[in-house]
Design a protein that fits this description.
Elements lengths: L5 H10 L2 H11 L8 H11 L5 H9 L6 H24 L3 H17 L3 H17 L3 H17 L3 H40 L8 H4 L2 H4 L6 H17 L3 H17 L1 H4 L3 H17 L3 H13 L5 H22 L2 H18 L7 H13 L3 H12 L8 H17 L3 H17 L5 H13 L5 H17 L13 H9 L4 H16 L1
Helix pairs in contact: 1-5, 2-5, 3-4, 3-5, 6-7, 7-8, 8-9, 9-12, 12-13, 13-15, 15-16, 15-17, 16-17, 17-18, 17-19, 18-19, 19-20, 20-21, 21-22, 21-23, 23-24, 24-25, 25-26
Length: about 500
């Protein structure tokens, strides 16, 4: 038996859902013997938070020395048993596995001469394959229909049905071919986005007939077409187009909910993309409604569960931050941290979430906790994808220390922040105005003089017309200034501004 690397076994056990683990236990322990060493090993791995091979060996064998070969074989055996059990589990839920099982039955029955039973299996498979647009399986079914008729010397059937079968084969091949073209188109656009390609590198796609005309001839190809259209609009910074195609995509996907059970990850991405558009348009009511759909999606695996929580919480925190619901966001943090810990992944340790945590506590007036999360953000490598966020973290750092009354530290930080922004070429008009303001306000004494300082800063902010899209706008600087001028909390100002904007929108 081939050796199985320990990390593979650990990863597959950790990726199993609670239902899959229960199913494994039932299948693997039919005799009710809990002393089976591979079951002991399974439980030991399941209990570990981080992989420790030596600890596992000791738990399983209860001795200090054991043949490494025996232990390796035990891990290999457990790995094989888990895979076979998961295959059995998937047969009950995965459409592709159900279809594969039908086609395998056809092959088994055909070899034993049970042609009528073969036809019955094909009929069941065809009904499911049509419903889920499994064109490769449908093409295989057509091939089997002809071969079974030939074997049975069913000349009447071939005379009557040959034309239909050939037409179906042609249609299935055309649908399969177009689906492949749209899939390749989408993946190419996706890779271009990840590599931060310019529009000149996708000009052939922009001009292609495939993206400019609706050629799709199936539900699945229409989904890929609109996913590609939305991606292209995003790359072209066409926000309205991105929103339009994202909404059409969601409508198409939700029109046939049975597909959603098989394509969970794609549906989560479509929902998240539309949420991103709502954020761009500041349509936070629609953002909230769409985000709630993400929460109700049923995951297929651990990756889906992580993705659902990540996308939902990212959008939820943004919704709370933009509408001033800071206490609601803070209330959600303990359960969020608990869930993140259970996932045993580092995908949440990024600048976006650290910014959310810091901003939420700032909005609640808890500046010490806000600074704690901000320091974690500042400790991250300076090679994060978005240098504008590095700039924002340093500006926010100055505001926090100002609120905490650390005036001497603020004076020192102004110099380092200025050097950093200038070096990174991130010093635009808003940042210049802010640095000049903070440099002045820390030297100003008396409530009236400080308020005048804030008023001058507000006036200068209002004069800066080319601030659209500036990263500092991610932090509501104007609301912070207003909170100092009219003696209201930052959260109250944000909530009031949101309520006023809703009236204007309606």
């Amino acid at each position: 038996m081939s050796k199985t690397p320990s990390d593979k076994l650990f990863k597959i056990v950790k990726s199993m859902s609670a239902m899959e683990k229960r199913y494994f236990k039932v299948i693997a322990n039919k005799k009710g013997d809990n002393s089976n060493k591979y079951l002991v090993l399974f439980d030991a791995i399941d209990a570990q938070r981080e992989f420790d091979d030596e600890a596992l060996l000791e738990q399983v064998y209860k001795v200090k020395s054991i043949s490494k070969k025996n232990y390796s074989e035990l891990k290999g055996y457990l790995y094989d048993v888990i895979l076979k059990t998961l295959q059995s589990f998937d047969e009950k839920s995965s459409i592709r596995n159900k279809l594969a099982n039908h086609m395998h039955n056809v092959d088994v029955l055909f070899k034993r001469g049970h042609m009528q039973l073969c036809k019955e299996e094909l009929k069941k498979a065809k009904k499911t394959a049509i419903q889920f647009e499994e064109f490769s399986t449908l093409y295989e079914i057509a091939r089997w229909e002809k071969w079974i008729a030939h074997t049975m010397i069913d000349v009447d059937f071939l005379h009557e049905e040959m034309g239909r079968i050939e037409a179906e084969e042609k249609r299935y091949l055309e649908q399969l071919n177009l689906l492949s073209q749209y899939r390749n188109l989408f993946l190419e656009l996706y890779l271009k986005i990840k590599s931060k390609a310019g529009l000149d590198e996708i000009q052939h796609i922009i001009n292609s007939d495939l993206i400019n005309k609706e050629h799709f001839n199936s539900h699945r190809s229409s989904v890929l077409y609109y996913r590609s259209k939305a991606l292209l609009a995003y790359m072209q910074k066409d926000n309205d187009g991105f929103g339009e195609y994202s909404k059409v995509l969601l409508d198409i996907m939700e029109s046939k909910p049975h597909f959603l059970k098989e394509e969970v990850a794609e549906y989560i991405s479509a929902l998240h993309n539309y949420c991103a558009f709502c954020i761009l348009k500041r349509d936070f009511d629609t953002l909230h409604k769409t985000n709630e759909k993400i929460k109700t999606v049923t995951p297929l695996n651990i990756d889906d569960r992580i993705k659902i929580h990540l996308q939902y919480m990212h959008n939820h925190f943004l919704y709370c931050i933009r509408t001033g619901q800071f206490e609601e966001a803070r209330h959600a943090l303990p359960e969020h941290f608990k869930k993140v810990k259970s996932f045993n992944t580092k995908v949440f340790d990024d600048h976006h979430f650290l910014f959310h945590y810091s901003y939420i506590h700032f909005g609640c007036g808890d500046y010490d906790e806000a600074l704690y999360h901000l320091n974690n953000w500042l400790d991250m490598p300076s090679t994060i994808d978005n240098p504008k966020l590095q700039m924002l973290s340093r500006v926010f750092n100055l505001i926090l220390h100002y609120e905490l009354g650390n005036i001497l530290l603020v004076s020192s930080l102004i110099k380092s922040t200025y050097r950093f922004l200038k070096k990174e070429n991130q010093l635009d008009e808003i940042e210049k105005a802010f640095l000049n303001f903070i440099k002045t306000v820390i030297k100003t004494h008396g409530k009236r003089e400080v308020k005048e300082c804030f008023q001058k800063f507000k006036t200068s902010l209002m004069k800066i017309t080319d601030s659209e899209g500036a990263t500092i706008s991610v932090f509501d600087l104007m609301s912070w200034v207003d909170s100092k001028l009219i003696n209201m909390s930052f959260a109250e100002i944000v909530r009031n501004n949101w309520e006023k904007s809703k009236v204007v929108i309606s």
